[in-house]
UniProtKB/TrEMBL annotation, chain B:
Main location: membrane
Pfam families recorded: BPD_transp_1
Family: Belongs to the binding-protein-dependent transport system permease family. MalFG subfamily.
Membrane topology according to the record: Multi-pass membrane protein
Protein name (database record): Maltose/maltodextrin transport system permease protein MalG
Gene3D superfamilies in the cross-refs: MetI-like
Organism expressing this protein natively: Sinorhizobium kostiense
Superkingdom assignment: Bacteria
Protein role: Part of the ABC transporter complex MalEFGK involved in maltose/maltodextrin import. Probably responsible for the translocation of the substrate across the membrane.
From TrEMBL, chain C:
GO molecular function, one term: ATP binding
Family: Belongs to the ABC transporter superfamily.
CDD domains assigned to the protein according to its UniProt record, in alphabetical order: ABC_MalK_N (cd03301)
Protein name: Inositol-phosphate transport system ATP-binding protein
Keywords: ATP-binding, Nucleotide-binding, Transport
Gene3D superfamilies assigned to the protein according to its UniProt record, in alphabetical order: 2.40.50.100, Nucleic acid-binding proteins, P-loop containing nucleotide triphosphate hydrolases
Pfam families membership: ABC_tran, TOBE_2
Subcellular location: Cell inner membrane
Chief place of localization: membrane
Membrane-topology annotation of the record: Peripheral membrane protein
Domain called ABC transporter: residue spans: 4-234
Length: 327, 366, 354
């Protein structure tokens, strides 16, 4: 009897415990949900609203005839026909884009960035930071101002800085009009001055990360300046170089700000790269639907490159499990 | 090897006697040549950058006629270049700290005197007229005669205010939202966390400029086109993935122990976040804030596309239109606006340089 | 092979003077060890020998020739770094081959020499691996092979054993020593570990704060340390140092007295733990700590003049904590220093040093 009573009371106690625990679970589930909403809610709403929705809008609009009137009158695939068949200018634009992207990348963003990183780390630290600081100036300047300086420098009159130097120091007779005679070179150089600094920073950090003993060992083993660069520095920069190449390809491909400011894509369409072409079609000619169709290709490329970018990040570190389980 | 090595080293009859002195002088020469070549190269490639900026500043503070003068530029270069060389020489020749400071002081004193004599008389603040005269355009025009198309300029302080508003609001929202989200992603286990982190990685590298057309249409349809609020929302959203990514890195670095001890001391996770973890990531918040602010301050393409009325102009648009309108007419005023627009950016960059460097390099595998 | 000379060599890094004035001769074929605590300038001296650092002043001579400014690659030295500094992206073979690349050695001969060097340090079967696939000891051997393959006139070892575990350290010690005996190459070892220095080197250069404290054989440093610093640095467990006063052949410190030879005034007496033993006579104390170390037992004894370490041979713990004991020693085993100048007056087992 006593034993059974004790049994009952024990059962009661277990039930009570379970009830408390369940209530606890319910409470923690609520807290879990509110935490999610409080912490992640705003970010998710903004991201969906301004990344996902625009992509959907872009796809939708590209199948309409949305034009200057900003009104949709029909659903059609004519925009894509235009892309693949009727728009003759597109071939020229794509060709130019290749020249621009790979020209800038090969000359400035990678090669010159690398040269700057190697040379500025080879001299005394103070001087090295000074020169790196100089090369960061263009990146630190607002785009409008940076391009203003370019416009003045290459001004076709005798007052232009380039012309002054050429005429006074090198005995040139008449001022040059570089904006009409060499516009492609100009957009490559003006973008390259900015692009080089990104490579410079990343490569500098990577070079700093090479153990000093390796350089010492190479010096003792008989390697000269160039052998040291070839056998010690460059092998250590394999990852940074591919990182810079991929990300700068993407950013050159989609950006047109400096070109728009410098040449407005001209003369005529001579410096209109693909991204700028999208912009001009949409906002200059008011062909919003066509612009949306063209932009879709860039969006796809952007996503693909961003996916490739996964390779560069330490997934394990990114995904490491939180060590506190309660919410 | 053992038995061969030793004799091989001592025999080597073909090897001529080593001439240590010529090796030493060759090394000396190589070292000097290397230094000269390196510095010459770096100076040569840096001049094309320094020169235009220097030009901007000299014109802003010295131009009187509105023409692009270079006389002052060359004269001040004649002071600056020897001064820099002087500093270098002082640094190279000084044997101890006292000599170094003495050398610097001497060079600086000479520089000040030379500058005052050669450039000083030309300096004035007249080109900053736009700061106190809203209708400076007419003043300038009357000075040089009638010119092309008249853009109606708003008061520069109005544009300045708009820029501060956009950059400030954007910064406040981005920092808040990104800190919350980054903390949650870094510290909470929940279903879908890993896929969310992966999409964040994609988003942070995704080029937002490609969305400009649909974004324009979206703003138009919801009636936010040509409003500062619309622009702020767009810029916030675009900065967000990158900011979350960076902030997550900072949160990841906070030791778990202090958070665990906060929990055992009776705090809830929210309380632990506010009172224990947030103070640990102050540097991260600072870095993200400065970076976002600069982006807002310098933003051109989106405001140019989404803002139309001149009462909505930001500094970048103001700068753009001043240059477009007065271009070729009054270099002095344009330069002055340029200096006024550039200086805040530079100051912010310099102040936060250390953190920004970390940010741009972070995440890349070695 | 080369004879190395430092003549008034100094080294500054900016405003920091690491080595004020260094004079040193290392004989041809000698195995010398630079010994000292971290930051004493021993690695800096080594890097000056290698040509990695340039001396700020003075003369550095190889076989009587001034080499101050000669580039590292022209000096024909081999060096093994603490971190081994193997080129991470090259195979072991390419790592060892690397120094020969720049000597225009014919390919066949170069490969043969790589093979020979690898055989010498027994890494032949690892030639196709990457450094990251090797254990610490293997990396160490590869680094040695790389340093030896060019038949250097001078071999430099910068803390080569400090990244190895204890047992490996022991065997590498013997191996490096026998390598030196086989090759006869002048060798300079940098270490902060006195046992490494005393077991491997013919001669030890003990350094402190950029200055040479003492140069001598391991025996010299043990029996006749020129200063309190060297006495404290050499020997494990460390020497007991007791400061007090000597008068008429009796030493007094905090009430404890014992006889002392050949000195008077303010002196410090150094008693090595292994020279102390428990006995019927001697100064009194109480055992406060017992540390069995295998073959030996270390007792810490609280005496009138402070804690004293006593090392007893054997593995049998014959005493208990709290036990009252008497500690005795032979006066000729004690070291006597002048307290003020911290210099040696009387060494162990010998007459006053000249």
């Amino acid at each position: 009897m006593v034993a059974s009573l004790r049994g009952v009371s024990q059962t009661m106690a277990t039930i009570a415990d379970e009830l408390i625990e369940r209530r606890g679970h319910a409470a923690s589930a609520t807290r879990r949900r509110t935490n999610f909403v409080i912490f992640l809610g705003p970010a998710i709403v903004l991201t969906v609203l301004f990344f996902i929705v625009p992509v959907i809008i872009d796809i939708a609009v590209s199948f309409t005839d949305l034009g200057r009137s900003l009104r949709i009158t029909a659903f059609t695939t004519e925009q894509y026909e235009k892309v693949f068949r009727t728009d003759r200018r597109l071939t020229q634009v794509i060709g130019l884009t290749f020249v621009y992207v790979f020209g800038t990348l090969a000359i400035f963003n990678v090669t010159f960035g690398l040269i700057l990183a190697i040379t500025t780390t080879a001299i005394r630290n103070v001087s090295g930071s000074f020169f790196r600081g100089v090369w960061l100036l263009p990146r630190m300047s607002p785009s409008v101002l940076y391009i203003l300086l370019w416009l003045w420098a290459v001004s076709p009159t005798e007052a232009g800085l380039v012309n002054q130097v050429l005429m006074q120091a090198f005995g040139l007779d008449a001022p040059l009009d570089l904006l009409t005679s060499a516009p492609i070179a100009l957009i490559i150089i003006s973008n390259g001055f900015i692009g080089a600094s990104m490579g410079m920073i990343i490569f500098t950090a990577a070079i700093r990360g090479i153990p000093e003993h390796l350089f010492h060992a190479a010096a003792v083993d008989g390697a000269g300046t160039f052998a040291t660069i070839r056998f010690i520095t460059l092998p250590a920069l394999r990852w940074p170089i591919s990182f810079v190449t991929i990300y700068q390809t993407l950013s050159l491909l989609v950006s047109f700000e400096y070109i728009l400011l410098l040449t407005k894509g001209g003369p005529f369409y001579d410096t209109t790269v693909y991204a700028l072409y999208v912009y001009r079609r949409a906002f200059e000619s008011g062909q919003y639907a066509y612009g949306a169709a063209l932009a879709l290709f860039l969006i796809v490329i952007g996503m693909v490159v961003a996916l490739i970018g996964w390779r560069f990040f330490d997934m394990e570190r990114l995904l490491q499990r939180p060590r506190i389980e309660v919410h | 090897m053992v038995t061969q090595a030793a004799p091989a080293m001592t025999m080597a009859p073909s090897e001529p006697e080593i001439d240590w002195d010529s090796l030493a002088s060759r090394a000396r020469l190589a070292r000097r040549t290397r230094a000269v070549v390196l510095y010459a190269f770096l100076i040569a490639v840096s001049l094309p950058i320094i020169l235009p900026y220097f030009w901007l500043v000299t014109i802003a503070f010295s131009a009187r006629t509105g023409v692009a003068e270079t006389a002052v530029l060359w004269r001040s270069m004649a002071v600056v270049v020897p001064v820099i060389v002087g500093f270098w020489l002082a640094a190279a020749l000084a044997r101890n700290r006292r000599q170094l400071w003495f050398g610097f002081a001497a060079v600086a004193a000479v520089a000040v005197v030379a500058f005052a004599l050669l450039v000083g008389p030309d300096l004035h603040l007249g080109n900053f007229i736009f700061l106190w005269e809203p209708d400076f355009a007419s003043v300038v025009r009357s000075r040089v005669g009638e010119v092309k198309g008249a853009v109606q300029f708003p008061n520069v302080w109005h544009a300045f205010g708009n820029s501060i508003l956009i950059a400030g609001a954007q910064t406040a929202i981005v920092v808040t939202v990104a800190s919350l989200a980054a903390y949650y992603l870094s510290r909470f286990q929940f279903p879908g966390r890993s896929s969310m982190l992966r999409s964040l990685l994609v988003l942070h590298a995704f080029p937002v400029l490609t969305l400009i057309v649909p974004m324009f249409l979206m703003l138009y349809w919801i009636g936010l086109l040509d409003t500062l609020f619309g622009v702020i929302l767009v810029l916030v959203a675009f900065e967000l993935p990158f900011a979350i990514f960076i902030m997550k890195g900072f949160f990841d670095a906070v030791p778990w122990d202090i958070e665990m001890s906060a929990l055992t001391d009776g705090a809830s996770r929210r309380q632990a976040f506010v009172s224990v973890v947030l103070p640990q990531v102050r540097n991260g918040i600072l870095a993200v804030a400065v970076f976002t602010f600069i982006r807002g301050w310098e933003e051109y393409i989106f405001v140019f596309t989404f803002l139309i009325r001149n009462s909505n102009w930001t500094m970048s648009l103001y700068m753009y239109w001043v240059r477009d309108d007065v271009m070729g007419v009054d270099y002095g005023v344009v330069s002055a606006v340029g200096v006024f627009y550039l200086v805040p950016s530079l100051i912010l960059y310099m102040a936060a340089q250390r953190y920004l460097m970390q940010m741009s390099v972070g995440g890349v595998k070695g | 092979m080369a004879k190395i000379e430092f003549r008034h060599v100094s080294k500054r890094f900016g405003a920091v003077e690491v080595i004020p004035d260094m004079d040193l001769v290392i004989e041809d074929g000698e195995f010398a060890a630079l010994l000292g605590p971290s930051g004493c300038g021993k690695s800096t001296s080594l890097f000056m020998l290698a040509g990695i650092y340039l001396p700020s002043g003075g003369e550095l001579l190889f076989d009587g020739h001034l080499v101050n400014e000669v580039e590292a690659r022209d000096r024909n030295v081999g060096i093994v770094f603490q971190s081994y500094a193997l080129y991470p992206h090259m195979s072991v073979r390419d790592n060892i081959l690397f120094p020969l690349r720049f000597k225009k050695t014919p390919r066949d001969e170069a490969l043969a020499r790589v093979k020979a060097a690898a055989d010498l340090v027994r890494v032949t079967e690892l030639l196709d691996r990457r450094p990251s696939e090797l254990s610490g000891g293997q990396q160490q051997r590869v680094a040695l092979a790389r340093a030896l393959v060019k038949k250097p006139q001078l071999l430099l070892l910068d803390e080569p054993l400090s990244n190895l575990d204890a047992s490996l350290r022991l065997s590498m010690r013997t191996e490096i020593k026998s390598l030196h005996e086989q090759l006869g190459v002048t060798t300079v070892l940098v270490t902060h570990d006195q046992i490494e220095a005393t077991t491997m080197a013919d001669r030890i250069i003990c350094m402190r704060a950029g200055r040479i404290e003492q140069v001598g054989t391991p025996d010299d440093l043990y029996l006749r340390p020129s200063s309190l610093f060297v006495a404290g640095f050499i020997g494990s467990p460390p020497i007991n140092l007791v400061a007090g006063k000597a008068e008429g052949g009796t030493f007094t410190a905090d009430g404890t007295r014992f006889p002392v030879v050949g000195a008077s005034g303010e002196i410090t007496v150094g008693l090595r733990p292994e020279h102390l033993r428990f006995g019927e006579a001697g100064f009194a104390g109480r055992i406060t700590q017992i540390e069995p170390m295998g073959r030996e037992i270390l007792y810490v004894v609280e005496t009138g003049m402070g804690a004293v370490r006593v090392l007893e041979q054997g593995s049998f713990v014959g005493h208990t904590i709290g036990e009252q004991v008497k500690v005795a020693f032979r006066p000729e085993n004690s070291l006597v220093f002048e307290t003020k100048r911290q210099k040696l007056i009387v060494g162990a087992h010998v007459r006053t040093p000249a």
